[in-house]
Amino acid sequence: MESMEYEYIQLLQKILVVSVSLYLFRKIIKHMASFMNVEKEPLKVLVTGAAGQIGYALVPMIARGEMLGPDQPVILHMLDIEPAMEALNGVKMELIDAAFPLLKGVVATTNAVEACEDVNIAIMVGGFPRKEGMERKDVMSKNVSIYKAQASALEKHAAPNCKVLVVANPANTNALILKEFAPSIPEKNISCLTRLDHNRALGQISERLNVDVSYVKNVIIWGNHSSTQYPDMNHATVITSSGEKSVRELVADDQWLKTEFITTVQQRGAAIIKAQKLSSALSAASAACDHIRDWVLGTPKGTWVSMGVYSDGSYGIPSGLIYSFPVTCEKGEWSIVQGLKIDEFSREKMDATANELIEERSLAHSCLN
Amino acid sequence: MAKEPVRVLVTGAAGQIGYALVPMVARGIMLGLDQPVILHMLDIPPAAEALNGVKMELVDAAFPLLKGVVATTDVVEACTGVNIAVMVGGFPRKEGMERKDVMSKNVSIYKSQASALEQHAAANCKVLVVANPANTNALILKEFAPSIPEKNITCLTRLDHNRALGQISERLKVQVSDVKNAIIWGNHSSSQYPDVNHATVKTPAGERPVRELVANDEWLNGEFIATVQQRGAAIIKARKLSSALSAASSACDHIRDWVLGTPEGTWVSMGVYSDGSYNVPAGLIYSFPVTCRNGEWTIVQGLSINEFSRKKLDATADELTEEKALAYSCIS
């Protein structure tokens, strides 16, 4: 008996030594490779609804390294519905025709399993658009089914630690449904896009103050990516020749900041549709790249961004909602910026958009029954 | 210290290609990740509202490199001070239109834009014509902007060049970044000649000729050529719209390599003013293999041209000579 146990222990020790050696060996090789400029392993990026407008703007941005960095090879997975298959194939052809050096493969499919296989990043652009005459409940109902099914596929087939960004509206609630039906995806990995609104706010300030947009930072979009969103300038700053100044001080027009500025940002989507007869694809795609890039590669020091994330109760916002907060990102993780002062005006706005999200959640849950 | 911004003009900017192109320019894909840009966007009055929508989106995207946007229907304002001009605007062929009708409309457009560019663009402005018929539009532009150095006027065949690389990479199942030195000769039309006689693939055993690895001359001389020539039509059939994504991307590649230089040992294809190289008639805008250095292109000389290639080079040159005659007849 004793000798068998002894041999067993010896075997375990050998296995342990071999495993540790292999692990260290691998680490050393990787370390050396980074000096020798060996290419990184490609990351797989899924785009759903890829045959549509936003997809068409987004995929070349990903293929050029705007989402994950100019040294990060990518493999694109593009998913759409059967009626869009020929168009989707056309997009695949164009991606090949563009001879992108970073693009190491393209999968174009109507099969959700194939699309989700091993993906590290998932951008959910596909959804059911609201058509004339449709009630909120009808749109919600259709999208709830879509996101329930896609949650399943992602949960089962995506790579571990897959990061998810929901773009299709109603973005926050679609993301919430996805989270609820993909319980094994860490809740911190499921987000929705409010970076577009965040960037729009930066743009409006830069136009108002006639400064470079790259000098404006730390706006916040609170809440729902809808007309109840609250663009908050209370902590935003501008780099000037005499240092960082607060936006509120430089604009010197609280009335404008509390009214016209807010409605301009809230209704910008409609303004774009009015001008172009199509909704904003270029800026939405660009904002999606910014969202993922900052999430994965980190936010610059002293700067935060806005992301729709799973609420933990910060700032008195009910937990269990996907709500847009100011966040910083480091090592692939976001953290809500804590301790910002919230005045009465802001409190009301933040609560109003939270209430809308609670309503949407009830509506979504009612569609599931 | 940050560089001075470069002014980039895009004509026809409210259209499909423009919409794909302007975010690429604003992200530094065309001129480098450290080069600030100011975009000038021009389109015709019926498109003014849509053009303004594009401007709004560019502002909404908060691009760090984008230092200004001018959206206008005034060609003088559009051309003022521009360092790079990408001419995407033109009259598209509609059903039932004769070649002469399309040519006639485009000749007028490029004649007047030539004037505006010549008078208002920055010195040494680099011009890339994308709108079809690209080579002949570029030729007209050159003829009516005599003070713009002829070496600064080019047309886009990089799209066809990239398509050729893509087809080879698919055939050989290799990464497209390992394939290089295809050539597109001649006209950006169905008479273009995609030539891989000098193209190579990077393999673990070093650089090998494409011809050797494909080992199927019939395919290379037949189906491959036709696929590249007709790829535009194949995209339209699949998407119901013409190729904007890949055209915009290739326009960025064309300018970037022109301005920042081609990598060592690599050439690209550009439609440039012929100097008689390879017995191609001078005085045409013809696509050649070129290397780029210090902001200037140079035709790659001394490549052997076999009989098959010679016929193809001449056929596309003949078509360009015909187009030139047609264009001139429209001016009279």
UniProtKB/TrEMBL annotation, chain B:
Domain named Lactate/malate dehydrogenase N-terminal: residues: 6-153
GO MF term set: L-malate dehydrogenase (NAD+) activity
Keywords: NAD, Oxidoreductase, Tricarboxylic acid cycle
Segments forming a coiled coil: none
Domain Lactate/malate dehydrogenase C-terminal: 157-325
Reactions accelerated catalytically: (S)-malate + NAD(+) = oxaloacetate + NADH + H(+)
GO terms under biological process: malate metabolic process; tricarboxylic acid cycle
Residues engaged in binding substrate: R93, R99, N132, R163
Enzyme Commission number(s): 1.1.1.37
Membership in a protein family: Belongs to the LDH/MDH superfamily. MDH type 2 family.
Protein name: Malate dehydrogenase
Organism field: Macadamia integrifolia (Macadamia nut)
